[in-house]
Amino acid sequence: MSDVTTSEGLDWATARGMGALAEKMGMEFVEFSVDRCVATMPVEGNTQPVGLMHGGAYVVLGESLGSMAANLHAGAGRLAVGVDINATHTRSATSGVVTGVCTPVHLGRSITVHEIVVTDDQGRRCSTIRITNMIKDLPAER
Known about the structure:
Blueprint: H1 6-16, H2 20-24, E1 28-32, E2 37-42, H3 55-74, E3 78-89, E4 97-107, E5 111-119, E6 125-137
Antiparallel strand pairs: 1-2, 2-4, 3-6, 4-5, 5-6
């Protein structure tokens, strides 16, 4: 599906949705293609008790983007599932919105790797997430 335009990808992602957790966290798609996916998420409602953006919230944003991007790449009749994720948090957002930008590191037939860079409103990197997804064929319908 590497020939999918940003507009078609955004339509696909919006129709599919990010899932209940992502919706609860307030994520919104901004851009979506095989080569680049972007989503935003508010800091408010996604913080630790001391008011800092929760590290797990960064990871949910990253996994949502990386898994969705891998599924767009996989195409019809195939499913991408996460098999590894890691994150390095380098700054704490305390207000506003964070933005996740997901780009592919490797797009194979059976494995994808994506890097997601999450920045705050000032464009400062807060977290770097890497996710590996395995792509498998969906079972035939019976």
